[in-house]
Amino acid sequence: MMGFRTNVRLSSGLKASTAHRVSVAIVARGVALPKRHSTHAKIEGILQQAAAVFCQRGYHQASMRDIARATGVSLAGLYYYFSSKEHLLYRIQRHAFETLLSQARVGLASAPSDPEERLRIFIRLHVKYFLDHPNEMKVLTHEERSIEDKLWREVGDVKKAYYQLCFDEVEALKRVRGLPGLDTRVAALSLFGMMNWIYTWYNPRIDPGAQELAHQMTEIFLHGVSPTWARGETKGATVHTSGHRSSARHEELTSVTE
Description:
By secondary structure, the protein is mainly α. The protein has helices spanning 16-28, 37-57, 64-71, 75-81, 85-109, 115-132, 134-142, 149-177, 184-196, 210-223, 227-230, 243-257. The chain has twelve helices and no strands. The relative contact order is 0.08.
């Protein structure tokens, strides 16, 4: 980080109060002091680039030197922040789940009490994060057990808290709708199964954006594939009927299944 030079010189006998006034004067004159968040931002950037490397090469094939090249950070600098490749993978996983958990808690804190609306918010936040961070999502899915048991359990604690948020909302929906036969665990895990594998098939050229995709997934989860889809009556949905888009979807499906 580029430093800032000043002509202020403090003698060894300068009183603390005087030193404080000098530091305030420096700030007042527009001299920037180091920002605490700069290190946090740098670490986040490294985690993002490392996830891309792991996604491309695979965790076991990638090296710290590969990550250093991708991030532009020296190898020594990389080891300053992360003690090992395993520690780096752990931080990627933990950071992702902590971000998901934090966003969900904030979103639900101001949400209405209606469990259906709360599930809509939860799904929208989850889908948006997955589409914004496809590399992280692939790493989370495929490299889950590539870290030692202690670190895996720590990440697992965050995952459980996140899962519990979803479970509680599905359980609330079960009570409100009077669905005694619904297995809450099966329903919640089925929802995650639908959302978590987006990265394997999502194509931004032909698939809807995060908001529309989340809406359609929510409707399928809450109401199934019902006659309302045929009539285009899903709330707020944009029904794509153009021949070009339909043809593109057919071609994409064919390429996936061949």
